[in-house]
Amino acid sequence: MMAVGKKEIECPPYAEGTPLSDRDIKERKVTYVEDHPDIRYSWSAGQAISKFLNGLKEGRILGVKCNKCGRIMVPPRMFCELCFKPIDGWVELEDTGTVQTFSISYIDPDAKPLPEPIIVAVIAIDGASQNMGIMHILDEVKPEDVYIGMKVKAVWKSEEEREGAITDIKYWKPLEG
Amino acid sequence: MEVERISGLKFHKKQDVAIVGAGMTTWKRRLNETGRELSYLAVKQALEEAGLTLDDIEMVVMGSAPDTFDGLHLKGEYLLDGSGGSDRPYMRVFVGGGTGVFAPIAGYWHVASGLADVCLVVCEEKMSSSYPHPQSAFKYIWDPILDRPLNPNLIWIFALEMRRYMHVHNIKHEDIALVSVKNKANALDHPCAQVAEKITVEDVLNSEPMALPVRRLDVSPPSDGAAALIMVAPHIARQLTDNPVWVTGVGWALDTTWWTNRDLYFPRYVAEAAKMAYRMAHVTDPRKEIDVAEPYDPFDYKELHHMEGLGLAKKGEAPILTREGVTQRDGDLPTCPSGGLLGVGNPIAATMGVKACEIYWQLAYRAGKRQVAKEVTTGVCQAWGDLMQVGTVMVMSNKR
Ligand SMILES: [Zn+2]
Predict the structure, then answer these.
(1) Do A105 and B159 touch (CB under 8 A)?
(2) Sign of the CA dihedral with B7 first, then B8, B9, and B10 last
(3) How high is the mean pLDDT of chain B?
(4) Which of A3, A41, A104 sits opposite B211 (nearest CB)?
(5) Is the ipTM of this complex over 0.85?
(6) Which pLDDT belongs to residue B7?
(7) Can you give chain A as a three-state secondary structure string?
(8) pLDDT at A8
(9) Is A16 an interface residue toward B (CB < 8 Å)?
């Protein structure tokens, strides 16, 4: 049996909750338990990204093309998600590009302050279709001098140092000046 | 064969869906209650408002995302008893931050399909379990091979979007900061609010830089909290109230995970989701027909971005509407009258409380001090999440 009728209560009716402060926890004034799981993962890079990473090791940026929609894509993938068919082949792209957008970051992955701010950008890679970018770091440029549309070039690690990782490119620097 | 991608009107519902009750807990950075206990409190309130007991609930939808904040796997299972889901059909749905509107959409499926006449939707998030800061869990959202070796912080992607948006439309940070000023002030009238305050544009522009252009006061806080909604069939709604609020349209869409391959200045994921929801709701001119809106605002520029995705403003026009006061609570198009995530707080999935629940309260004229000045018939709420790619939209009306 249902329907006792809707009550006229002010909304949101508001359940108070019990707020804690940082100190409450640090000083163990409240009961809690801690756990530090120790777990590691090893990810398979897959077919497309494996080839891309091996390209980076050789100092080359590889993309893929789809003849149906005509796109040249990077990061590469084994299938065109728009045409939903296998890609038609691999292309070597330039190691230059254009800054699509950027940020000056003052924080590390844990939101802790960085000693020096770093510049992070989305860079559209030359030779790929419009807007085909990757995220990476900019350096050898002052934060106030970066602008959207700036041409940049990859600064590679030495051949011996490269290991087949996105960080085989140390950072990107302005193409001119 | 070419078919149109969003064909909302192919949709045949078995019955209309009404909302008859909602509830939410206070939102705080750190609450002593567990997620189960918070869920229980929100559910109790929703039941009380609807005039129902748990025995009346046929099915339960729970929204919570992701597991990493709580450090609890099988979180749907963990939250079962606090959500009132024991011994009845129960499911968990999540699309990251988009869950706050996706969970009620899933509740809508239950009732519209005729599978349930009374469905309870519960959303919970407890971000403070990951100690000292949930940012450390956020880093696992990034692509492990292409992005994570660069040591990214999640704020990066928002900063990149915000910069691109400002660049394409030539928008000043001052105009974006007005959103934070508005929402934090609106939240002063919300009893559950975490960071309600009177601030100025200068306060935002002078706040600590995080990842420029994003500064501390451009960002919503991490929170703990829960919210609940009760969705029912028309014959049940009639027994409970003379003034139900109807769900008239739902929509959802995801843009590509290759996020660096899309132009970040416009949220296509919202535009597609909105197109679907508006078709279902027979809304053809959202700017004219929507009376009150709760676009998703974890960052101040995001409210503007999402207003444009929702068709409430032309591309690049949302900052102008904001500057002109159109989006104030007494304006022509009040947005985030609740105080939003920027003012009330951001417990990821539980943001249902200031999105779907708030639009319900506004359309039921039960929003108290937060009630918008104008007469309201139709409202829209929206959420956003996953790898910055999902849009979830719900249109509601107090007329059937
Ligand atoms: Zn293609």
Answers:
(1) yes
(2) positive
(3) 95
(4) A104
(5) yes
(6) 58
(7) CCCCCCCCCCCCCCECCCECCHHHHHCCCCCCCCCCCCCCCCCCCHHHHHHHHHHHHCCCEEEEECCCCCCEECCCCCEECCCCEECCEEEEECCEEEEEEEEEEEECCCCCEEEEEEEEEEEEECCCCCCCEEEEEECCCCHHHCCCCCEEEEEECCCCCCCCCHHHEEEEEECCC
(8) 66
(9) yes
Judge whether residue A2 has pLDDT over 50.
no
Three-class secondary structure of residue B365 per DSSP: coil
**Do residue B357 and residue A12 have CB atoms under 8 angstroms apart?**
yes
CB < 8 Å to A11, chain B? 22, 49, 361, 364, 366-368
Q: Ligand 1 centre from A145 Cα, in Å?
A: 37
CA atoms of B262 and B279, how far apart (whole Å)? 26
Would the CB atoms of A106 and B211 count as touching at under 8 Å? yes
User: Where is average pLDDT lowest: A165-174, B122-131, B283-292, B354-363?
Assistant: B122-131
- In the DSSP assignment, the letter for residue B142 is S
- Average of per-residue pLDDT across B387-395: 95
A155 touches chain B (CB under 8 A): no
DSSP β-bridge partners for residue B133:
none
CB-nearest to B212 from A20, A75, A103 is: A103
Paired tokens of A105: 């970051």
For A46, nearest residue in chain B (alpha carbons):
B145
Smallest Cα distance from B351 to chain A, Å: 13
Q: DSSP labels for B237-290? A: HHHH-S--EEEEEEEEEE--S-GGGS-TTS-HHHHHHHHHHHHHHT-S-HHHH-
Residue B15's H or E segment, with its range, is none
